[in-house]
Design a protein that fits this description.
With about 160 residues, the chain is of the alpha+beta class. The protein is built from six helices and six strands.
């Protein structure tokens, strides 16, 4: 796919960052661009004019941007320790196998108040956060994100991340 070339393209990197709401060092960095039906960010990397354009998962682009073009070994996936598929926070990413990722989800999806237990599903949760970000002023973003997350948890229980 030419990851080194995509990661070296300054316009592509700038476009990636323009879709990331960077927050505190331990908070999720929300993807504000396109989403898949599994709530993972989707991103057009490269350029149509140089025939390098590829649509890639945003977190895979971000992981490689943070760790190098060859940082994801064959047979591995990038797991979100926060269980928020649109998260672009490098501190929330962990390499593992698809089996590891499936075991993570199975262990946590029924925990009351956890991201994986959101009544809207992952895509509904991500879209609600994106809408909250888009409609909030700079001073209101954190409260808007919190309200959007709380709306998918009618029990009111809170489950902190397990990692």
């Amino acid at each position: 796919m030419g990851w080194a070339r995509l990661l070296a393209d300054g316009e592509t990197v700038a476009r990636y960052w323009s879709h990331v709401l960077r927050r505190g060092p331990d908070q999720c960095w929300w993807w504000t661009g396109g989403l898949t039906d599994t709530a993972h960010g989707t991103f057009r990397a490269g350029s149509h004019t140089t025939a390098t354009s590829r649509v890639v998962p945003a977190h895979l682009f971000g992981f490689r941007l943070a760790n190098g073009p060859d940082s994801i070994p064959a047979g591995h996936v990038v797991r979100h320790t926060c269980d928020e598929p649109p998260c672009q926070q490098p501190r929330h990413w962990l390499l593992g196998t698809r089996g590891d990722n499936n075991r993570d989800a199975a262990a946590r999806r029924r925990l009351s108040g956890h991201a994986l237990a959101d009544v809207r599903g992952a895509e509904g949760r991500a879209r609600a956060v994106q809408a909250a970000i888009a409609n909030a002023g700079p001073e209101e973003i954190e409260a808007a994100i919190a309200a959007a997350l709380d709306a998918g948890n009618p029990s009111g229980a809170l489950q902190n991340p397990l990692f």
